[in-house]
Amino acid sequence: MFGNTKAFSGFSVNDLEKAREFYQQQLGLDTEGLNEHMFTLKLAGGTPILVYAKPNHVPATFTILNFQVSNVEEIVDKLSAKGVKFLQYTGPIATDAKGIHRANGEGPTVAWFTDPAGNILSVVEGK
């Protein structure tokens, strides 16, 4: 039914302008304003991600967006210098002092952080 249908994802935020500023200035993404209640993130590959304002927004408790990079540590350092705080985890996905989970061959190297609305994002090492 949807095999040839274009699709896109979306998520909510509690403050649209704070979110737009974060995605543009901290992450370096282009955005396209649709109206005063939503905008799209313009990602490599062309599939837009809809970001919309929701008054009773509750942050996602899972990773909503993963950015594939060639060197997680380099990106963590650059984002940290811009004020982005990386999450610290213990247990099976334990992170180091920088907030990086180093999989050592047991999966990808990854680091998680949040947007201003508390939604979880990640940078994940891949080719």
UniProtKB/TrEMBL annotation:
Keyword Amino-acid biosynthesis among record annotations: no
Domain of life of the native organism: Bacteria
Keywords noted in UniProt: Lyase
Gene3D superfamilies: 2,3-Dihydroxybiphenyl 1,2-Dioxygenase, domain 1 (3.10.180.10)
Protein name from the UniProt record: Putative enzyme related to lactoylglutathione lyase
Organism expressing this protein natively: Chitinophaga polysaccharea
Pfam families: Glyoxalase
InterPro entries recorded: Glyas_Bleomycin-R_OHBP_Dase (IPR029068), Glyas_Fos-R_dOase_dom (IPR004360), VOC_core (IPR037523)
Key word Lyase present: yes
An example Gene Ontology molecular-function term: lyase activity
Domain VOC: 5-126
